[in-house]
Design brief:
heterotetramer, A: Rossmann fold, Elongation Factor Tu (Ef-tu), domain 3, 2 domains, seven-stranded antiparallel sheet, seven-stranded mixed sheet, B: alpha/beta, TIM Barrel, eight-stranded parallel β-barrel, four-stranded antiparallel sheet, binds flavin-adenine dinucleotide, binds flavin mononucleotide, binds FE2/S2 (inorganic) cluster
């Protein structure tokens, strides 16, 4: 099996001519674990303020989330249901902290969904023999994919038990923790090493810390397995014009955030360098 | 690259010795943050490219949202985020190895900073240099710092002129009562050409649900279709003034160009080449090849054999 | 008319004593050439209307094309064609018999002409008066005559103030570095309120087949969607400046308004009422009723019970 | 029969958001009579410069004709064929003179077609029993209507034989001249008086000098006949925004130029007053 069957990714959805946040009410806030919450956002008033592009959503796409008077940053859609969309936010810095403090009834701005999500999912890609490998908050990106590929094996890694995501949402998943406080002790990449050796996996989708993804991509490459990974880069416009999210000449906001293993192999910065808000190159992790 | 297409009109342009295969130039601020993206712009068919403006020291710029688009154009208030001249010097080292000429863009709070940034960057091999005196949304810079007066224009241009022999373009604002005076002041200060124009306004879009301006800096420069007629008139005014003074300095016409027809319109107003920024959003990164192809067909249909025939055709 | 809708938000506005049932005002130059058309505008639901600007003597204006529309807005260079103040006085005699308040609009080459035209027209029964100091495309008038400086603004305002007691609005240009100064100069000269803004630019559209600008005057003022963000920012700037000076003069926000959402956005920037011109083209003469209806629904959804709550909500 | 069957005119075609002249080549120039010529304009390059709205053309609609560096004025489309449109210009002042001097190969700018043309034509309106009454250059406006209503009686009036239009194009027409140099001696309204008396006509369409049209409308009103007339007013924008073409609160460019007899009865200026370029009211004729 060659990487060819995922080698021709579809072009990103054509941008609409407006890119303005639409203010929507938070319908429900769920605690996911010690440091993460999910905001479930009502799409009810989205009709009065057209601009969202959700009809063509594919798992892996993201929205730009605006908190007035503060900032606007990218978050994957972790849920998309009838009348509601969800983002799952891991508390890192001031912006994610503010999001985690939001309550039902408050409003935030959304524009998108933007970017190229996972592709060939559920059509040409194998179902039962696919693996979805998430680390930490990468689970937010992968969750809608896991829902569309119920036959695939979902493998989640976390530092410890209190950092796990969606254990109830995906009961059959394989869990790894760094400290062994839940599931298997170790890294989810160990699962992949075994699965590859057993010939039990034919396609891999991943999102998580970049060193983990780099290892997954490397393993798949060695095994000749098709693979897709969703990467994070600092974003400003989210619509391909400012250049801030560049990763070796690819704009992560429109040509990504999901890239194939083949593409990532030609991106020397992957796993190594990203850019800060000034555009300066800094090491990953 | 600058060889005319055997089967079509000659679209090559010579900008003070800088040779372009076609008149499309990536405008400063769109994509030009990294060498790799400029390389992609080159592959997508641009005649030349401009880097995003660089200051001596690193800048974080304004908070997001920094770029928004509404139905008639784009508003941005990026706020000159950049890694500073030293880091940019590393990013763009040996930039003359690219297949197209690349222009540097530098800004500062005063003439000395403009010159210092230019001095640091020019050894990278830039084909030329642009100095925007016209940003409408960054305190300390551009029109918010009074750089848009004839006096400041001449003074800053002179300071930068002193540190480089490469073709020097001064980028002007459309938000002034008399853009021609500024162009003449730039030429007086030693500029080789004019870039017209930077963004319009500034403008503001308020989200009524949030009761708050959308941009992090509240207001930002307007670009894209909304700007185009104003930009064309500015180029027309500048070209008219330069002609009247017997000055042959070329103009890079910038503002809302997204088709070959727009490019030809801008050239008929007096531009030698056209900058393209916002259209990277509306037509994709392939916009440079698309514009060039459309321009070629249009020139063929109108029996225009070379852009020299079109340039300034609408001037009196 | 000014009674609040029992089932909805109170959309009535009091502009220095002029009572509007809703905040939509026909902007000067669109339709307002005849009494009959102003009557139609009233029937279509406008809160008030402004007549097309009148000069002392008749004017032919520029040759056609005088009004063109492109994908992001409209360009016009009508050139103040009008039948002169005497004839206009006959046209608009007893204008206070109409169901909505009507504002006069007068222009002149100097302060004396402004005052003379105002003196001739005001006895018709106009509810108030607007003086545009801001037309960008008519030689002898507006910004082309230097009316857009603080000094000229104050002087002309003072001259007109001397001949009428009715509410006096000064209409400003968006094409100036500091619109707030102009607003303060107008207030200093005795204005009761500010209209912001007139058209942008000017802009130019060149037809590449004809190698010629399309407008008869070659360039013209830009209105419609292209202008909206700049107009909102201008109103925001003026409102901020007036507040800072403790001045409660109302602002009529004009530029690109075509929906209820736009109207609310403009009011959150500080406007008390909104002018509507170009949208008569894009949405038909019924646009006034449409905007009012949309505004009513939007206010209901956002729990805004009266426009007082919305006005200036986005100011710091 | 009441006027009701024409009393609900359709709304004018929705304006497109652009109103810019499209430059087109004159394919052929035809002399129509001593003072009028037809310019047949090639629509070939109209595809490259979109903007014309000809698919929905109805007889009576007009285009704004631009001569660069000179002026732009309204002219009815007198022809619309596969790939060509025609205007028929009567030499009056400097602009129409310049148009009459144009040669094949020269280019002029067109935008439109604008306005409300004749309506209910060929569907609910009677065919054989309709009359089309033209005077002078009004024939240019009526010609495409006459083509769509081949059964209708076409009646043309002119000062003298050398002012007649389209005698070959419509061979069956009834001709009147003021001086008797061709056809019947007198005015076409005389024909209408007789036809009304005979009960031979059930609907009337007219265009010509306003006093003539006023007489036609009056006759139809007296006889209770439905009637439509196309009127001329000074135009600037052509798209309903400037107010220049006002006729008693109706914008002739978008709500006309064709009005029903009922509408005209409520327009006191019809047949009496029009406005010059400054907006001043002046008498008609
Ligand atoms: C395509 C994409 C999808 C994402 N999806 C999620 C998600 O589903 N859940 C989630 O919790 N986070 C997600 N993120 C990360 C998120 O955008 C924020 O970066 C994160 O919440 C930290 O922001 P902060 O301001 O709280 O922390 P800070 O302390 O400001 O930043 C922590 C780190 O986050 C990165 N970062 C900060 N701002 C941005 C930005 N504007 N764009 C990109 N990276 C930035 C920086 O590298 C920084 O070192 C995603 C990022 C991208 C690019
Ligand atoms: C809807 C409409 C359709 C028309 N169709 C035709 C047609 O098919 N053939 C034809 O020969 N003429 C037509 N006309 C008249 C035409 O537009 C010109 O008015 C005419 O050619 C005279 O123009 P001029 O400049 O040569 O003469 P001028 O000496 O300038 O004008 C002669 C008279 O024409 C009228 N006029 C001038 N300019 C305009 C204008 N911009 N808009 C309206 N009226 C004007 C004035 O009342 C003037 O008194 C039409 C007018 C309208 C409004
Ligand atoms: C997102 C963005 C960032 C920009 N940054 C800069 C900049 O750093 N320096 C500069 O001189 N102009 C900058 N500009 C202005 C553009 O170079 C250009 O003058 C303007 O956008 C008009 O062209 P357009 O309509 O093709 O975008 C920026 C424009 C945009 C949209
Ligand atoms: C065709 C046209 C004619 C105008 N004439 C005048 C005028 O005579 N006096 C004036 O003060 N403003 C005039 N204006 C400017 C408008 O009043 C208004 O300020 C501007 O068009 C912006 O509003 P809008 O975007 O709603 O059209 C004119 C605008 C248009 C489009
Ligand atoms: S975030 Fe601006 S190009 Fe990707
Ligand atoms: S010509 Fe302008 S409204 Fe009719």
């Amino acid at each position: 099996m060659t990487e060819n069957h995922v080698a021709q990714p579809p072009p990103a959805a054509v941008s609409p001519q407006t890119a303005l946040p639409v203010m929507l009410e938070i319908a429900e806030v769920r605690r996911e674990n010690a440091t993460a919450k999910t905001l479930l956002i009502s799409l009810e008033s989205a009709e009065d303020q057209p601009g969202l592009i959700l009809e063509t959503f594919t798992p892996g796409q993201f929205v730009m989330v605006w908190v007035p008077r503060m900032d606007e940053k990218p978050y994957a859609l972790s849920y998309l249901e009838e009348g509601r969309a969800g983002i799952t936010v891991h508390r890192r810095g001031p912006f994610s902290k503010r999001l985690c403090e939001m309550r039902a009834g408050e409003r935030i701005g959304l524009r998108g969904a933007y970017g190229r999500g996972f592709w060939d999912v559920g059509e040409r890609a194998p179902g039962a023999s696919a693996a979805i490998i998430g680390g930490g908050c990468g689970m937010a990106v992968l969750a809608p994919l896991a829902e569309r590929l119920p036959e695939a094996t979902l493998v989640q890694g976390a530092r410890s038990a209190d950092g796990l995501f969606f254990t109830d949402r995906f009961p059959g998943q394989v869990i790894f923790t760094d400290d062994g406080s839940a599931g298997r002790h170790g890294l989810p990449t160990e699962w992949l090493v075994e699965a590859v050796a057993d010939g039990a996996v034919e396609a891999v989708y991943t999102c998580g810390p970049e060193p983990m993804m780099a290892r997954v991509v490397e393993l798949c490459r060695g095994a000749g397995l098709p693979c897709q990974a969703s990467i994070e880069r600092y974003m400003k416009c989210g619509i391909g014009v400012c250049g801030q999210c560049d990763c070796d000449g690819r704009r992560v906001c429109v040509e990504g955030p999901v890239f194939s293993g083949e593409e990532l192999a030609r991106m020397p910065s992957f796993g190594r360098r990203r850019r800060d808000k000034t555009g300066r190159q800094i090491p990953v992790e | 690259m600058s060889t005319p297409d055997a089967t079509g009109p000659n679209l090559s342009v010579n900008l003070c010795g800088i040779k372009l295969g076609n008149p499309t130039v990536l405008a400063s601020g769109a994509l030009g943050m990294t060498r790799a993206l400029i390389q992609r712009v080159a592959r997508s068919g641009a005649g030349a490219a401009t880097i995003k403006s660089v200051t001596v020291r690193p800048r974080q710029g304004h908070n997001n949202p920094t770029v928004i688009a509404y139905e008639a154009g784009m508003l941005n208030a990026v706020g000159y985020s950049n890694p500073g001249a030293d880091e940019a010097g590393r990013e763009f080292a040996d930039i003359d190895r690219l297949s197209i000429p690349v222009l540097a863009s530098v800004v500062g709070e005063d003439a000395g900073e403009f010159a210092a940034a230019a001095e640091r960057l020019m050894p990278c091999g830039f084909a030329g240099l642009e100095i925007p005196l016209s940003c409408p949304h960054t305190p300390g810079y551009g029109t918010l710092a009074g750089h848009g007066t004839p006096e400041a224009t001449e003074q800053i241009t002179r300071a930068v002129r002193a540190v480089t022999d490469r073709p020097l373009f001064v980028k002007l604002s459309p938000n002034v009562p008399g853009i021609s005076e500024l162009a003449l002041a730039a030429i007086e200060g030693g500029a080789d050409g004019i870039c017209a124009v930077n963004t319009l306004g500034p403008g503001m879009i308020i989200n009524v649900e949030a009761r708050e301006p959308v941009l992090g800096f509240k207001m930002g420069g307007v670009s894209g279709p909304a700007l185009r007629p104003v930009a064309v008139r500015c180029v027309y005014d500048v070209a008219t003034a330069l002609r009247r003074h017997g000055c042959e300095a070329p103009i890079i016409g910038i503002g809302g160009i997204s088709t070959g027809r727009h490019a030809l319109e801008m050239m008929m107003a007096g531009a030698s080449a056209v900058g393209v920024g916002t259209a990277v959003y509306s037509r994709g990164i392939e916009v440079f090849g698309k514009i060039t192809q459309e321009l070629r067909q249009l020139c063929r249909r109108l029996s225009i054999n070379s852009l020299d025939e079109a340039r300034g055709a609408a001037l009196q």
